[in-house]
Amino acid sequence: MPIIYLFSMLFHVPSSGFTNSAMIGIFTGVAFFNVVFVLRIPSLELVHVADGMTWAFLLFPHFALSNGLSNLNTLNTFIPLCNTLCNWPSEECCMPQLPDQCCVQGYFDFTDPGIGRDLVYMAVVGVIMFGILLIKETRVLEGVFYRGKKVIEAPIPETEEESGLLDSDVQAEKNRIREMTLADIENHNLILKDMTKYYGKFLAVNQLCVGVDAGSCFGLLGVNGAGKTSTFKMLTGDEMISRGEAWVRGISIKSDMKSVHQIIGYCPQFDALLDDLTGRETLYIFCLLRGISTQRMKGLSEQLAVELNFMQHIDKKVKEYSGGNKRKLSTAVSLIGNPSVVYLDEPTTGMDPGAKRHLWNIVCKQRDSGKSIILTSHSMEECEALCSRLAIMVNGEFKCLGSTQHLKNKFFSFYNFFLNFN
């Protein structure tokens, strides 16, 4: 199981993962076994080669299983024969005129055809792979790598802050965040302080500073490639922060992401849903992961489905959902567990205008309940309807920051009128 779990991470389509894992299992379990079986034919005089290959191939559990079953069948055949031919211990019964199988001490002997080494190899490989899986899932090595590696990224180029061209509101927010004490940080639901992300030597996010209070919605507006999704990946722990720091309710994202996960919700840009589960089953799974009692799961799931207007589809499989209904389900998942901070990465993609308006009302309701909503969008209309403050991102940096009305007053001091005359 651990090997299949690790192998599945190489694929994004379930059918491809299943097919490839099955083929590898057949190849290592059947092809390798047949090679060894043929080499053991006495007339070929290659038994020593077969023995060496057996020890190497035992690293593959499918081969170890095939080899063990074959040896077990051999022992079941020869042990009654040996008992008939020999009335004394097997050590004395190992005569040239008798088969080698009569020399085996028992089923669990480590010499061929005993199955002892097959069982030990399968157990050891299973434990090792389970350990690798735990390391992979807990991201221990990634954290050690980031803490221990030298800074090899290209130096941050001269910023608009250093050149004096940075917008005054963005500069004021940077100064406010940098001067915050620990008590100030704990009084905000979300704080980003000079948060930076490199992919190799490519600078994707550059020294973001912002603070988000409870009961507010902060919007990130920008085109594709501006750095919005990279910012979300750092805030949710999918990517490590290269430089800077971030806190959720005073808890450091860099040092205690496990605690942060308990108080955030996330609706990703691309729906992270299992196609063969129903909407109800999906909500139940995430309720269990959030620690919701089984007595409350049904009521909470149906409440979210009603609020987000997909109750009529809740018992359909996810693969039968439209794009808009998948976004509704993903949004519902992000709200399970009453998180303090909710990240919504373009939640209205694929929705019709009526569904968008309905979702906006739900987001406003969640915001007014005291949650902090972090929203990314391409739509200025959406940000204007939902956001207390917003920032426009270009090339990983904030170019302007403030309420929608403030930005209108600052940058839109004129109007364009288009008149058509017949």
Automatic annotation (TrEMBL):
Domain ABC transporter: residue ranges: 190-420
Pfam families (alphabetical): ABC_tran
Record-annotated membrane-spanning stretches: 20-39, 46-65, 119-135
Gene Ontology molecular function: any one: ABC-type transporter activity
GO CC aspect terms: membrane
Keywords: Membrane, Transmembrane, Transmembrane helix
Keyword Mitochondrion part of the UniProt annotation: no
Protein name: Putative lipid exporter abca1
Organism: Lutzomyia longipalpis
